[in-house]
# Entry
Amino acid sequence: MTFGLGVSAIGQGLLWATLGLGLFLTFRILDFPDMTVEGTFPMGAAACVAAINNGISPIWATLIAIGVGMLCGLATGLLYTKGRIPILLAGILVMTAAYSVNLRIMHGRSNLTLLDKPSLLKLPIFAHAPMYFDSVFLGFTVIVILTLVLIYFLQTDLGQAFIATGDNEKMARSLGIKTDNMKIMGLMVSNGVIGLGGALVAQNDGYADVNMGIGVIVIALASIIIGEVAFGELTMNQRLVAVTLGSILYRFVLLVVLKLGFNTNDLKLFSSVVLALCMMVPVFRDMFNLKRVWKRGISTHD
Amino acid sequence: MTKPILELKHVVTKVNRNTPEELTLLKDLNLSINEGDFITILGSNGAGKSTLFNTIAGNLTIDSGDILLRGESIANESEERRTRFLSRVFQDPKLGTAPRMTVAENLLLATKRGEHRHLTPRHLKQHMAEFKEMTSGMGNGLNERLTTPTGSLSGGQRQALSFLMATLKKPDILLLDEHTAALDPKTSQELMTATNERIIAQNLTCLMITHHLDDALKYGNRLVVISDGKITYDVSGDEKQQLTQEKLYSFFSDLQE
# Structure
């Protein structure tokens, strides 16, 4: 039983790591928080489940989810760069609009199940895996491909221009990099990946829910930050891998919380607390810096 | 007679257009720059030196007049588009480099200034030997730090790197906006010497804003003074060689009267 829960946590961690990787592109590389993800994630889920219910194959349904995610990113990107709306607000606008769109996609229902319909997890290569291992295999396959694609992308001339845009926009422009286009591209790729995450999670859970986007940005941030806190100074490629490991670690933290007797309704509270604590690690390091405390203890007051 | 590479004709640049704070920064400015000119630019604060650079680089659009590159108007080209022929170094060391990227990565970005960037591998390794040689010419240890993020370099190293990045792919026009002003006197002097050597070696066309009268006199073949949005003094060749600090000072005090 406990072993099963552990395997399940790894599977969940791998599937949800797509969110962390998607958000990494905007949060860490472009250096701004993109709220769109809270609308993109359920939209990817809704589009995928609706497509499968309409008889489209799970692979195509998943690709459609990536497509609608990219459209959301495009909308936010245009509002932000061409419409000059602050990024936080642009993301919230698209996220709010997406709620209505998601209800449309799900024909006015707030919940859409897959029931006996096919899904990626029921593909022959995954279906014969033991209990819980199907999501591990699927998650692992997707994460390996995604991570390799991102590593390749970031090492291309275009990827370097993308990184430079987030690092020093003025310099990037003075080298002829069209920074607006880079931001739009980043938002599109990021939200496409998050749409993929929604599709995967929905197929794993067997349904899409219009409220499943609430708080996902916290979960995505948690994978990024936990990875960074746990592994410290890393190269760009290592950081991408750390996101996935952070996502799995985060699932184990949740497992412990549930084992302590809290119920699933408390999880969002714990997600926020875990993320807040991790983000305050540098502050705590300063506060509890023993060397400094010791120094203070022996220095005279002057 | 050499043909002008860049011409500014009756250029007027305003900021805060159609607001009560509207200001005219360049007032019917005319300047003709010949190929190979190394022009030092003097002027008091607010005279319009930086505005001139921002107008040439496309950060500011002009209200009237025209800017011509080899006879073709570039007045409506975007800032990004103008980087095909133009590069610049800013005064603030933080502005010229990407802090989280390494020295080599920054240099690599500069090799493609003004070009389209595709989904092709960047080939950083193939450039390392070339970057090593180039940076060792600056004589400030930059060549030992090719894989260091530029955020942890000294200000002098960063400015030297910014300068290298601006000249790596030969620009038709190089704009130096007080690029040594934020450095200590010794570092500043070293960078200025390296700058001069590279400009002469590559036969670059360069405009350099400076507040040091002796630098303005010592370097370049032409000296221009801007005051109140216009070119008020323009000397070149022998006349510039014979110019002294005293003459310049008296010129400046005349202006103030």
Notes: The two ends of chain B are 37 Å apart (CA to CA). The mean pLDDT of chain B is 91.
